[in-house]
Amino acid sequence: MGRSEIIILLKDIGYRPRKFKVEVTAEEMDYSGEYEVVGNAEVVITVARIDLGYRMEIEGKVPVKFVCSRCLDEYVETFHFRDENVLRRGEYVGGEALKDEDIDSIYLERDEIDVLPLIREIFIANLPINPVCSPDCKGICPVCGLKIEDEANHVHEDVMGTRKLGVFLEKALKEGGKK
Ligand SMILES: [Zn+2]
Ligand SMILES: [Zn+2]
After folding, report:
1. What number of helices (H) and strands (E) belong to the chain?
2. Do 50 and 104 share a domain, yes or no?
3. Gap from CA of 114 to ligand 1 centroid (Å)
């Protein structure tokens, strides 16, 4: 069984940033989405006091098995994720706007924070929508579905047929337009 929380005590943290290194297992990441976490996540949490409370940065890397959105191959890549938050004491009262609107505030009841749900959240929020196995992945052949990189020069006999159909459609469209 993995941990269900990873608590960081904030009380003794001053204005000088403190770093915490945590290792989060695939089980603890508790991710069951489109891809697969295939190893431990190494996470560095940097916390420093600020006037409003604390500023916390979470930075992690974890091996993930993705499915390439172009060629549909599975590939494992070390995936990096990062985000920062402002931790504020007390309940949200509104009104008081942060200068940096991009940074979310988290309201704390005590001088401690469970970073595990944050790590999971940031990991998911950073996941790519269309992952690619390599920036120049050519994808798959639209006719047969083979990976183009492996079969760069293959041809299809029915390409002519496809072209004929194209010409036919073009003609049909033109004729339709005349009416
Ligand atoms: Zn690919
Ligand atoms: Zn093909």
Report:
1. 3, 8
2. yes
3. 37
Q: Check whether 97 has a pLDDT greater than 60.
A: no
- Predicted TM-score (pTM) above 0.70: yes
- Which ligand has the nearest atom to the CA of 69? 1
Mean pLDDT of the chain: 86
Does residue 1 lie within any of the structural domains? no
HSE value, Cβ hemisphere, 13 Å, CA-based, for 119: 31
Which of the four pLDDT bands, split at 50, 70 and 90, describes residue 79? very high
Q: In this structure, are 14 and 83 located in the same domain? A: yes
Using the mean position of ligand 1's atoms as its centre, give its distance from the Cα of residue 74 in Å: 8
Rounded CA separation 116/3 (Å): 9
Residue 37 DSSP SS3? strand
Nearest ligand to the CA of 153 is 2
Q: Which domain holds residue 71?
A: 7-126
Residues 44 and 20 in one domain: yes
Q: Are residue 65 and residue 144 in the same domain, yes or no?
A: no
Residue 152: the pLDDT is 74
3-state helix vs strand vs coil in the chain, percent to 5: 20, 35, 45
